[in-house]
Design brief:
The chain has about 400 residues and is α/β, with parallel strands linked by helices. It folds into 2 domains: about 170 residues, Phosphoglycerate kinase, N-terminal domain (Rossmann fold), CATH 3.40.50; about 200 residues, Rossmann fold. The chain has 13 helices and 17 strands. The strands form 4 sheets. A 6-stranded parallel sheet has the order 5-6-4-1-7-8, sandwiched between helices. It has a 6-stranded parallel sheet with strand order 11-10-9-15-16-17, sandwiched between helices. The chain has a 3-stranded antiparallel sheet with strand order 13-12-14. Strand 5, helix 3 and strand 6 form a beta-alpha-beta unit. Helix 9 packs parallel to helix 10. The chain is elongated and about 70 Å long. About 50% of the residues are buried. The model has no long low-confidence stretch (mean pLDDT about 95).
Length: about 400
């Protein structure tokens, strides 16, 4: 999939038009304060371009998973942060029904270049069911629809898909275009050697990704909790480590598939293990076999060397999922080693959102990566080879 056949915002004259922009402002909050504004900043190029073009911007987004109107999930803090970042006032339409009297009045009063932010789209229960009434309400506020929320594009909701039924003109924003360009090229036309690194807790979360990537990569590196199921397949003891017994057969097939395709499949050769799942506890490094009452929490130093050596000459790297329990300082070493290796690579380095994006940013390597995806679930589905409903719905060129 590529945005090459989709209209982008450069191709639409928005002067004097009301432009509904679906952003991804699903930011972490602590007591009403935004703790990380990366997603808001990522939307700025599109927003600024549309302001400069004389559009009248109506921004919308979800935040969290409210079961209806809930002050804890209000987008008011986002309006405040956005006003500061844009250096201009963003009018917040605080309607529990999202498209209410405040929103209608604010949009009616707009001049070219003005910005209005609607309340959390999930305050309306119809949003996630993609029901027509809410899609029509949103569409009533705009002449043009722009989707720039990659992190929500894998969901067919009113604000990502339904609204396109009732607005004639639609396009993708700069962030969507960048996401799909990086991930699309990585999957369909990678510079080689192409290495994928998959981590995280469960094999079951990554089945379709492993399946799809094995037909495309030169090397597949497995770390995190999912590695123990693969080690068990090879006859190793995994102690109390995370083991998905119902995925043994699948993992066996994947090892065979890698062999048949000539893909270099790398698994841990040593593991950092503990008896208690906490940071401040006794830990030791063992080989491929983990003693009975111990559990694996990170890749060991030999594995770190094996993995980082495999990355040195790579021209395209996609990374999704940490190598261990990186939230615990003592067990972040494997994830740090991989992040450092990626930071030194000459080729294209793509971080597939979610925990790996959090890890890279937390560890201070964010600016060394070619691209950090803003959408964990969406980037996974992309790497599985699926089409994203929020992209499919946009007008073709």
């Amino acid at each position: 999939m590529s945005t090459l056949n989709k209209r982008n915002i450069n191709e639409i004259n928005v002067k004097g038009l009301r432009v509904l922009v679906r952003c991804d402002f699903n930011v972490p909050l602590d007591g009403g304060k935004i703790t990380d504004d990366v997603r808001i900043r990522a939307a700025l190029p599109t927003i600024n371009k549309l302001i400069e073009g004389g559009g009248r911007l109506v921004l919308c987004s979800h935040l969290g998973k409210p079961k209806g109107p809930d002050a804890k999930f209000s987008l008011a803090p986002v309006a405040e942060r956005l006003s500061a970042l844009l250096g201009k006032n963003v009018t917040f339409a605080a309607d529990d029904e999202v498209v209410g009297e405040n929103a209608k009045a604010a949009v009616a009063a707009m001049a070219d270049g003005d910005v209005v932010l609607l309340q959390n789209t999930r305050f309306r229960k119809e949003e996630s069911k993609n029901e027509e009434a809410f899609s029509r309400d949103l569409a009533s506020l705009a002449d043009v629809f722009v989707i720039d929320a990659f992190g929500s594009a894998h969901r067919a909701h009113c604000s990502t898909v339904g609204v396109t039924e009732f607005i004639k003109e639609s396009a993708v924003g700069y962030l969507m275009e960048k996401e799909i360009s990086f991930l699309g090229n990585a999957v369909s036309n990678p510079a080689r050697p192409f290495v994928a690194i998959l981590g995280g807790a469960k094999v079951s979360d990554k089945i379709a990704v492993i399946d799809n990537l094995l037909t495309k990569v030169d090397t597949l590196i497995i770390g995190g909790g999912m590695a123990y199921t693969f080690l068990a397949v090879q006859g190793h003891e995994v102690g109390k480590s995370l083991l998905e017994a119902d995925r043994i057969e699948y993992s066996k097939q994947m090892i065979q598939k890698a062999k048949d395709l000539g893909v270099n499949l790398l698994l841990p050769v040593d593991n950092v293990v503990v008896q208690e799942f906490k940071n401040d506890t006794e830990f030791k490094t063992v080989g491929k076999d983990i003693p009975g009452n111990w559990l694996g929490v990170d890749i060991g130093p030999e594995t770190q060397k094996l993995y980082t050596d495999a990355l040195k000459d790579a021209k395209t790297i996609v990374w999704n999922g940490p190598m261990g329990v990186f939230e615990f300082e003592n067990f972040a070493k494997g994830t740090i080693a991989v992040a450092e290796a990626l930071a030194k690579v000459d080729g294209t380095t793509i971080i597939g959102g979610g925990d790996s994006a959090a890890a890279v940013n937390l560890l201070g390597f964010g600016d060394k990566m070619s691209h950090i995806s803003t959408g964990g679930g969406a980037s996974l589905e992309f790497l599985e080879g699926k089409e994203l409903p929020g992209v499919v719905a946009v007008n073709d060129k």
